[in-house]
Amino acid sequence: MQSHILMFLLGLGALTVGAELLVRGASRLALTFGISPLVVGLTVVAFGTSAPEMAVSAGAALSGSGDIAVGNVVGSNIANVLLILGLSALIVPLAVNEQIIRQEIPIMIGASLLLVVMAMDGSLSAGEGWVLFALVIVYTVFLVTQSRRAGQATQDEFAGEMPDEKSKWDAHWAVQLALVVVGLGLLVLGADWLVGAAVAVARIFGVSDLVIGLTVVAVGTSMPEIATSLVAAFRGERDIAVGNVVGSNVFNIFAVMGVAGILAGNGLAVSEAARNFDLWVMLAVALACLPIAISGREIARWEGVLFIGYYIAYTAFLVLAAQKHAHLPAFSGIMMSYVVPLTVIGLVVSFIHGNRKGGDPA
Question: CATH topology for 2-357?
Fold first, then answer.
């Protein structure tokens, strides 16, 4: 038991240090090469922090475990938005860059919708996997090209946001790149230690493997994103905090699901449960980002609380459904009859109020 606790603490420490190094290196690297922190968050940071999802889904596809491969991506995308953005917004209201609103969130919604359409026949074919993987290459090239066109204007815009500008030890691009690589390595290692320790402790206390998979492991593969976005929010790098989440979701669908579909060979099976519920929740969560981002051009603290509340409710639903609990119908009825309609009304009011204020774009 003590060894598991020590491993948990070491994992937490590795995540914290790794996130700090990654955010510092990525933000400095952005300034050095004239690329906005937003684009670095959408690409280098987002793709790197999705390494656990890639490893899990690729391994699951090779072993024929389609449910794990698909559930890992869908569950991580839901956690990225509801849990990570929610926690980050609690630290500081997240001003949303105009590019996020008009370009990146619609791309995330489009990617989510594309995955839903591809999965409706019960499998993701190798051909569809190649299509998804090609899209992540096109998306990355487009983002970098778009950012480089900004040139000096980009550097001038973000130069004032970079912390500790008097420090020169990490001024060279090679040092900055090393910080990114070491940070990513510590994030992946820390996530592995933390998840392993948490699963071991949960089993000691008699928690079932199903509940562990729905909670500890699902959140565990998103720990790099959680650590990175929280550190970015604390440091005031809000573009990296938001970009990390949106970019990770796009990468998870295009790259992780693409690779999983390719490796599966005869097609990656998508369960009926995922087609009837979880994929639609992922799409709904992506759609919910747009009105929240537009209203006041920020994700406010109360919206962060709302996101976290919905993630808790989603997890509770999964656990109750897995156990076929007697309270499941009542829980579902309360969510659909009261909570969801009140949330929609609140978002509409917030949207109208935000437009009347004429909030400036972030």
Answer: A middle domain of Talin 1 (1.20.1420)
Span 249-269, pLDDT tens digits = 999 999 999 998 998 878 888
266 closest CA partner among 129, 74, 133, 132: 129
Q: What are 28-49's pLDDT values in tens digits?
A: 777 777 777 777 777 777 777 7
Q: Where are the beta strands (DSSP E) in the chain?
A: 94-95, 123-124, 268-269, 298-299
Please provide the DSSP assignment of 93-141 as one string.
Answer: -EEPPHHIIIIIHHHHHHHHHHHHHHHTTSEE-HHHHHHHHHHHHHHHH
Name the residue among 254, 195, 236 with its Cα closest to residue 46: 254
- Spans of all domains in the chain: 2-357
Nearest residue to 111 (alpha-carbon basis) of 226, 266, 270, 246: 246
Whether 85 contacts 100, CB under 8 Å: no
Beta bridge partners of 298: 95
pTM: 0.76
Are 247 and 240 a contacting pair, CB within 8 Å? no
Q: Are 104 and 42 in contact (CB under 8 A)?
A: yes
* 8 A C-beta contact, residue 56 and residue 68: yes
Cα–Cα distance, 196 to 176 (Å, whole number): 30
